[in-house]
Specification:
With 66 residues, the chain is an all-alpha fold. It has one domain. It has two helices and no strands. Helix 1 crosses helix 2. The protein is rod-shaped and about 80 Å long.
Length: 66
């Protein structure tokens, strides 16, 4: 995840806890999680859209009359 290991994440969380206090750091963590989730879903939607534009599904031909 962006080249950040668990040790670095714990250090960042510890500094945030010290600087912001326990209540605000928990709120910040929650908002950060929501933001990351939104970014991931928006990225997946955009990727899907561009993939469909680049490689459209083949068109179905009309049925032949016999």
């Amino acid at each position: 995840m962006f080249g950040i290991g668990s040790t670095e994440l714990m250090l960042i969380f510890g500094v945030a806890l010290f600087v912001l206090g326990p209540e605000r750091s928990i709120q910040l963590a929650k908002k950060s999680g929501e933001l990351l989730r939104k970014i991931k879903t928006d990225w997946a939607h955009a990727k899907n859209h561009f993939d469909l534009e680049a490689n459209p599904p083949p068109k179905k031909s009309p049925p032949k009359d016999q």
